[in-house]
Design goal:
Length: 301
């Protein structure tokens, strides 16, 4: 029994795919820019390498794959796909420049690390300049072309946003304090104008329990500090709740909160940017597979 080859030339496999697609050596020759005799010699070489029964049967000028040829063709298509993807990645790795990315502070720390890490490894020569602002401010920056891409909580006026996923909003509290049981519940809210603040106040409008706005902050860090010291409770995206805080369930008597629709915004000027497209692709892929991982880490870290 002959020893199998150590490797197969990708040019031979590409020619095999071309023959299968066009149905003839002549058609494959036109596609790959070689002569018909060169194609015939390549297939003779491929059959010699793999050994065994022939890969093709002749039907006039047409070439029909045998069962064995079909098996090799399926593998050849997979290898060619990997080959093309590798070439694309290497081309993109040579990209340079800057992508201006915006996101709320808590999304940068919880939803973006996986995407940014992979993007940095694939495209080491592209700088990502990150701006942390509330979603409404980021939407205006996109319109004004001050940033290229933004991961936001989709709100009014964001009809062009690409929906990615939803994240629950939960009540976060200190595990050492029960301020949510006070007759008038103290709340820590985002600053006025934030869509998250409006959602919390709307939820309380349907609740008979009295409340007071004890603290306002433009950042998640500010809200977490207040909650951690037991001065108030706060409504946060579940992925943003630190592990040392507790999440209050329905038994707490607090109003239910809506889910946050997370979306991507693009500036019109960046539609044809390869680097912006590449970063958007990484964010999209990361959120489609990694949100549950983020949640588990938030609970167990």
């Amino acid at each position: 029994m002959s020893r199998p080859p150590d490797f197969l030339d990708t040019q031979l496999l590409a020619t095999l795919v071309a023959i299968a697609d066009t149905g003839s050596f002549a058609g494959a020759a036109r596609r790959i820019g070689r002569t018909e005799s060169a194609v015939s010699m390549q297939m003779k070489r491929l059959e010699d390498l793999v050994g065994g029964p022939p890969l093709f049967l002749s039907d006039g000028r047409r070439r029909i794959l045998t069962e064995r040829g079909e098996v090799l063709l399926a593998q050849a298509r997979k290898l060619m796909d990997v080959h093309e993807e590798t070439l694309l990645v290497m081309q993109l790795a040579a990209m340079t420049g800057t992508v201006r990315l915006g996101a709320p502070e808590d999304y940068v720390g919880t939803l973006l690390p996986r995407a940014l890490d992979r993007f940095a490894r694939l495209h080491p020569n592209v700088e990502v300049a990150v701006t942390c602002e509330p979603s409404g401010s980021l939407a205006r920056m996109i319109q004004d072309r001050k940033i290229d891409l933004a991961l936001v909580t989709r709100g009014p006026g964001m009809d062009d946003a690409e929906y990615l996923c939803s994240e629950p909003t939960v009540w976060a509290a200190s595990p050492l304090h029960d301020v949510h049981r006070e007759p008038t519940v103290p709340l820590a809210l985002f600053q006025p104008g934030c869509s998250g603040r409006a959602a919390v106040l709307e939820a309380w409008a349907s609740c008979k329990r009295p409340y007071r706005i004890a603290y306002s902050s433009p950042s998640v860090a500010g809200l977490v500090t207040v909650v951690r010291t037991g001065l108030a409770i706060a409504a946060l995206a579940r992925c943003s709740v630190p592990p040392d805080l507790r999440i209050l369930g329905s038994e707490s008597g607090l109003p239910a909160l809506p889910e946050l629709p997370i979306a991507l915004l693009r500036s019109t000027a960046s539609r044809d940017s390869r680097s912006v497209n590449a970063l958007a692709r990484e964010i999209r892929a990361s959120l489609s597979t990694g949100l549950e991982v983020v949640r588990r880490k938030a609970k167990t870290a």
